[in-house]
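tool_log.txt
---
The assistant was asked to compare two proteins side by side. It first ran the structure predictor on the initial sequence, then on the second. Raw inputs and outputs are pasted verbatim so the downstream comparison step can read them without reformatting.
(1)
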Amino acid sequence: MEIDEGLQRKMKSRHLQMIAFGSSIGTGLFLGSGAAIQQAGPAVILSFAIAGFVIYLMMRMLGEMAVEHPVSGSFSAYARTYIGPLAGFITGWNWWFTTIVVGMLELTAAGTIMDFWYPDLPHWITALVTLVLVMVLNLVHVGAFAETEFWLSFLKIAALILMIVVGIAIVLGMTPEPALGLSNITEHGGFFPMGTYGILISLVAVLFAFGGIESIGTAAGEAEDPAETLPRAINSVIWRILVFYIGGISIIVLLSPWEHMDTATSPFVRTLTTLGITSAATGLNIIILVAAMSVFNTMTFSGSRMLRDLALGGQAPNLFTATNAKGVPVRALLFNCLLMGSAVLLNYLFEGRILIILIAIIVGAEIISWSSIVISHLKFRKLMKTQGHEPSYRAPLYPLANYFCLAFFAMIVVLMTRLADYQQAAIALPLWVLALVALWFVRKAAGRRAKA
C-alpha cells in the first residue's frame, strides 16, 4: 500500500492527540444521550460501558492497521486491500455518505442549540453561517484545520471535565447546598427502572454518541511520524470513554432524576438549569455549540479525504484526486460542502423534524464502517502471519475480539427494528448495501465498455 504524496504531513502530535480526544464528543453525547437515559434510566451508565468496550476493541484494530499503513483512505483502503475491491467500494462510499449525513446533523443541531438564546431564529440561518465558516477554514490548509480543531476540542473537553468536577462536588456536598448523594439513582425506580431490556434498547442511542470516533484514521495520511503519534492517540480512547462518556453520563444521572430528561434539550444543560445554575447552563450551551462545530469541522475534513481516496482507487470520478499547492483536495471539499449544505434547505423546509431521522441513518451507516474495520483486521492479521511479519502495535484478544464485535453490531441492527424511530433505518441498511453493490457492478460494466 503506497503512501499518498498529494497530501502534506502538517498534523502535529498534539493535533492528533486532541482530535483523538474530541473527534466524537459532539451532538451524540451532549444532545442525543437524553434518549438513552429515557430508555435505561441510571443503568445507562452500564450501556455506555458495554458500548465503550466494543468501540475500544474496534479502535485498537483500526490503530494496528493505521500504524502499518498510514493513508488518508484509512478503513476504506484497508477493506479494499485486505477484503477486496468491492468491500473497499462499499466501505469508502458508506463512510463518505456518513460524513455528509453527520455534517447535515451537526448543522441542524447548531440551530437547535441556538434555540436556548434565540428561539425565533430560523435554524437554516445558523446552519448556513456554520457551513461557510468551516468551509473557508478547511480551504486554507490541513494545518489550519488541525489547529482550529485542537482548540475546539480543548474547549469542549475542558468544559466536560469541569462539569464532572463540579458535579462530584455537588453530589458529595462540597458546595453550600446539601449533598445530593446517590438519591437520584436509588430512588425514582432504582438503578434499573427499565430492566435489562432498557439497557439493551438504549445501546442503539448510546452507539450514536460514539459516531465519528473512527475519523482519526483518515488523519493518518497527514500526521507527522504516524508510527509514534497514532498509537498514543488510539490508546487514549480508553481514557476518553471512561472519563468523558461514562463519567459525564454518571454525573448527569446523579444530579437530576432520570425521568426529567427529554430528547429536545441537552441533558447536561437541563440538569444545570434544574439545579438553578443558570449561568453555568448558558456557558455549557456555548460549549455544546462549539462541539457541534468541531464535529462538523472534522466531518468536512474526513469526508473530502475519503472522496479523494475513492477517486485515487478508481472508485470515484478522477477529478476529485486533485490537490492544490497546499495539499488541500479543493474539488472534493467543495463538492462535499455543497451536499452538506442541503441541510440548510432541509431546515428551511422541515424545521425541527429532521434531527431524529438523521440520527437513525447515521447509526446504520456507522455499523457498516465499524464492521468493515473488524473484518479488515481479521484479514490483515492473517496476511501478516502468512508473511511472517509481526505488527509493531497489536490489537488485544484477536480473533475473539473481532467475532465479539461483529456479533454485537448484528445485535444492534436487530434492536433497531424494535424502535419506532430506527425501524426505517434498519430496513434501509441492507437496501443501501445492495444499492452500493449494484453501483459497483454498473461501474465495472461501464469500465469494460469504455476499454472495448
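(2)
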Amino acid sequence: MKTLGKKIRLLRQQKGWTQQEVAKQLDVSIPAFSKMETGITDLNLSRLNQIAKLFNLTLVQLVSNSDTDDIKDYSNEISMLARKLQQKDDEIIQIRKKIIALYEQLEKDTPTL
C-alpha cells in the first residue's frame, strides 16, 4: 500500500496540487489524505475509483505497479526552474528601469523646437 500512496503523492505533485486541494476534491480531511499518501490508510475500491478519476486514470493504471516507475518526482526541478524564472523576471525589471532612465535622459538632453 505504501507504493500506491507514493504514486498518489507523485501524481498530486505532478499536477502542482497541495494536499489541501486534493483532500477538498476527495471530500476528506487533510490528515486523512496525508494518511492515504503515506500508506497508513487502506483504500477501498470506491475511494480508489475516486482518486483514479481525479487524476484522469483508470483504476488499473492507478493500482498498477508498473506505472510507478514512469512517474518521476519533478518537485526539485520545478523549484529550480521557478527560481530561474524569478531571476529572469528580476533581470527584465532592471532592464526596463534602465530603458526608462535612458529615455528620460534623452528627453532631457533633446532640445525642444
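---
observation on (2): The radius of gyration is 24 Å. The chain has a mean pLDDT of 87.
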